[in-house]
Specification:
alpha/beta
Length: 314
Amino acid sequence: MDELTHYSVLLNESIELLNIKKDGIYVDATLGGGGHSLEILKRLDNGHLYAVDQDDYALNKSRARLEKYINKVTFIKGNFINIKSLLNEYNIDKVDGIIYDLGVSSFQFDDSDRGFSYRFDAPLDMRMNQDNKFSAYDVVNNYTYDELKKIFYEYGEDNYSPLIAKSICKARLEKPINTTFELVDIIKKCLPAKVLRKESHPAKQVFQAIRIEVNNELNSLKESLNDAIKLLKVDGTLCVITFHSLEDRIVKNIFKENTTLNLPKDIPFIPENMKVQYELLNKKVILPSMKELNENNRSHSAKLRGIKRILEDE
């Protein structure tokens, strides 16, 4: 795959929520195709952007795309779970805004060699950071029946998790499962005809579950968001674009914890030292416009939430 193709989901809406200051310090925690980074950089004068990604391909392609703004951007290879320590290496402990665009980038899905997609025959890989040893092959071939069933149900929300897990364990007794199409074939053979007739691909949820497991996506998101919120300056904003309910639930819960006081019902007044430090930028989740939905099929499950810091630490 030679060309970088990437549609930045909820681009205008997320940039508006960030409310970019010309001299501000910003972080794109998921650089990907660089679409959000480009729009941030266009709005900076003396400000600076720190662009983080664990995928070498994304870093290299986005570096070329953002070359015009090279003096305003620092590229950082790393997982956003380490956002605090990655920024500390550049003596940054407070920022004006952070954006997360979660999930897999379009070019990762469309790269037939990466194994993210059930549309291409490729080695079972799915690593966002290709320096990691652990891959989809290890999950499919080495996890126990109970482990497979658990991740398919919890991360893929697939009601046929026991049946699929059992079929995988049976198939790998004969030989290792090496490719995406081998896995798709196993999944299709064990599912009832009524499921196969549905518009949605029968392997979609299982592939999602394996990808989440390989890249430790949900735990990474929890840890990263809890650190990211603390990095915000007063009036600083944090925006997160999610693509499935598990991610959105994590974001929603963390934002709620930081914008509400957990007080006993019978307390007569709120103590002076007990104030929320953050407020929601949007009480109702932001969804893609009809125009965007028509232009980009991958926008259909996207949701945007934002939070703003309103008080400094005591």
